[in-house]
């Protein structure tokens, strides 16, 4: 059994916020669970070519814009899933951080961060 508390996990600066990785590859579960803070006002162009991701908003708000340009409001109680390695923009409200619980499969190594120099940053 694995028991972890947020206060016991080290945060990883992922580019536009902080991600606490509760489960990683070394835990042998096959997926990763994170507590991720997206900084207020940040705009992250993302595309996960090697992972599928689902995110559930537990605080704050923002929006996700899909590759067709459609905007989807993200607020507390909203889940979005990138089931086709979808390129997207994740934008936090300018007034508050957005906090997400995210699941990745396959599992992250644990120290991944984004490089926003290219059109879409990925793991």
The chain-level structural class is mainly beta
How many strands, which pairing sense, and closed or not: the largest β-sheet?
6 strands, antiparallel
Q: What is the distance, rounded to the nearest whole angstrom, between the alpha carbons of the first and last residues?
A: 28 Å
Secondary-structure element string? EEEEEEEEEE
The tally of beta strands, per DSSP, is 10
Pathway: Amine and polyamine biosynthesis; ectoine biosynthesis; L-ectoine from L-aspartate 4-semialdehyde: step 3/3
EC number: 4.2.1.108
Protein name: L-ectoine synthase
Catalytic activity: (2S)-4-acetamido-2-aminobutanoate = L-ectoine + H2O
Overview of the molecule:
The chain is mainly beta. It contains no helices and ten strands. It has strands at 11-13, 17-23, 32-38, 43-46, 52-59, 61-66, 71-75, 79-82, 88-92, 98-105. Strand 2 (17-23) and strand 3 (32-38) form a beta hairpin. The model has no long low-confidence stretch (mean pLDDT 91).
């Amino acid at each position: 059994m694995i028991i972890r508390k947020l206060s016991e996990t080290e945060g990883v600066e992922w580019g536009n916020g902080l991600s606490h990785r509760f489960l990683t590859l070394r835990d042998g579960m096959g997926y990763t669970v994170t507590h991720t803070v997206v900084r207020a006002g940040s705009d992250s162009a993302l595309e996960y070519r090697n992972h599928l991701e689902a995110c559930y908003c537990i605080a704050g708000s923002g929006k996700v814009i899909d590759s067709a340009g459609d905007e989807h409001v993200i607020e507390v109680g909203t889940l979005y899933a990138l089931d086709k390695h979808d390129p997207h923009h994740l934008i936090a409200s300018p007034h508050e951080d957005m906090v997400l619980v995210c699941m990745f499969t396959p599992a992250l190594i644990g120290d991944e961060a984004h490089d926003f120099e290219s059109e879409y940053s990925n793991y």
